[in-house]
């Protein structure tokens, strides 16, 4: 079916794209993509199971880590169907309703991951600033309330995306820019007034940057607290507890910032760069976060190795 096969008044199908100019090797590209999805699913599922089954890990830090793993797992499964359909079966068609549903899930779990990173930065600040009161401040009930509150916030803020997209009419172009659906990509194809979508999309982008600003502020306060510690060894020990989270923040936000820069300053450049960064945005965080936390968090690493039957030497 051709992307130009549309009715005169209204279209009902969008067309996603794989990697332009490399269609002949899509089947080979799908092999590492499938491998990444499998490793991401196994890694995040392992973290969820380990934290659930190990009473010694029933602490706020690990509860928040399980929220991150859940967000990564859902984010992977949100983009998996369309990406593999294109690469494996050369099937880029997607109905408008299915596309809108996919963008809702992708944006919701992206917002959830951003929120969890904010919560984890607050967790690290409390652990370093008030270590003696850490358990009394972040009780299990309070951790659950914080998690549910942020999840509800993400759902409520992203819900207008599909609602406002459904009211748009699509009658001319139907070729999207990526191998999955995003709000900003769908709304640009509308031939009816999409100003509400533009304004609300800008509002959500500001909220995302606000999350990043809160994380940055948390680390300014953490650094200020650490510098007040007299012992050099204790300072390093305190900072070392933040390394995994800092890596997770960089892994998540760097593709977003890079994609924004490309859209702003390289609009007429090669689409391959934009598509490559967009794919990194959805593929790399779910893959790397479990690896980073297993490598840098001793308790998680020991439990994983123990489950695999590998004794610590």
Characterise the protein shown here:
It is a single chain. 34% of the residues are buried. The chain is built from 12 helices and 2 strands, in the order βααβαααααααααα. The longest helix is centred in the middle third of the chain and has 34 residues, at 96-129. It is mainly alpha-helical and 313 residues long. α10 packs antiparallel against α11.
Short description:
The chain is mostly helical and 313 residues long. Helix content is 73%, strand content 2%.
Write the layout of secondary structure elements.
Layout lengths: L12 E3 L10 H28 L6 H30 L3 E3 H34 L4 H4 L2 H19 L1 H7 L16 H5 L7 H33 L4 H9 L2 H23 L5 H26 L1 H10 L6
Antiparallel strand pairs: 1-2
Kindly state the percentage of residues in helix: over 70%
Termini Cα gap: 59 Å
Major β-sheet profile: 2 strands, antiparallel
Order of helices and strands: EHHEHHHHHHHHHH
Output the radius of gyration: 21 Å
Catalogue the unreliable spans.
Answer: none
Give the mean pLDDT: 88
Q: Tally the helices.
A: 12
Strand order within the widest beta sheet = 1-2
Oligomer: single chain
Task: Considering the chains and any ligands shown, give keywords for the structure.
single chain; 313 residues; mainly alpha; two-stranded antiparallel ribbon; 2 strands; globular
């Amino acid at each position: 079916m051709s992307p130009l096969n549309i009715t005169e008044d209204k279209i009902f199908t969008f067309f996603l794209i794989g990697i332009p100019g490399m269609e002949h090797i899509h089947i080979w590209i799908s092999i590492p993509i499938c491998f990444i999805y499998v490793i991401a699913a196994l890694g995040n599922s392992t973290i969820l199971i380990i934290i659930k089954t190990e009473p010694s890990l029933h602490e706020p830090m690990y509860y928040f880590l399980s929220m991150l793993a859940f967000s990564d797992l859902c984010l992977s499964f949100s983009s998996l169907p369309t990406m593999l359909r294109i690469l494996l079966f050369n099937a880029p068609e997607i109905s408008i309703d299915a596309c809108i549903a996919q963008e809702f899930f992708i944006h919701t779990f992206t917002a959830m991951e951003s929120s969890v990173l904010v919560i984890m930065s607050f967790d690290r600040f409390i652990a370093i600033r008030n270590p003696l009161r850490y358990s009394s401040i972040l009780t299990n009930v309070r951790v659950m309330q914080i998690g549910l509150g942020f999840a509800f916030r993400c759902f409520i803020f992203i819900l207008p995306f599909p609602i406002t997209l459904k009211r748009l009419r699509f009658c001319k172009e139907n070729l999207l820019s990526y191998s999955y659906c995003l709000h900003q990509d769908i709304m640009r194809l509308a031939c009816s007034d999409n100003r509400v979508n533009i304004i609300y999309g800008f509002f959500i982008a500001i909220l995302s940057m606000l999350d990043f600003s809160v994380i940055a502020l948390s680390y300014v306060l953490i650094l200020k607290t650490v510098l007040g510690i007299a012992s050099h060894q204790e300072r390093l020990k305190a900072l070392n507890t933040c390394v995994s989270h800092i890596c997770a923040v960089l892994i998540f936000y760097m593709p977003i910032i890079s994609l924004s820069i490309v859209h702003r300053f390289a609009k007429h450049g090669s689409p391959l760069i934009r598509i490559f960064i967009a794919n990194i945005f959805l593929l790399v965080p779910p893959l790397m976060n479990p690896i980073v936390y297993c490598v840098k968090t001793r308790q998680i690493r020991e439990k994983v190795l123990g489950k695999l039957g590998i004794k610590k030497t």
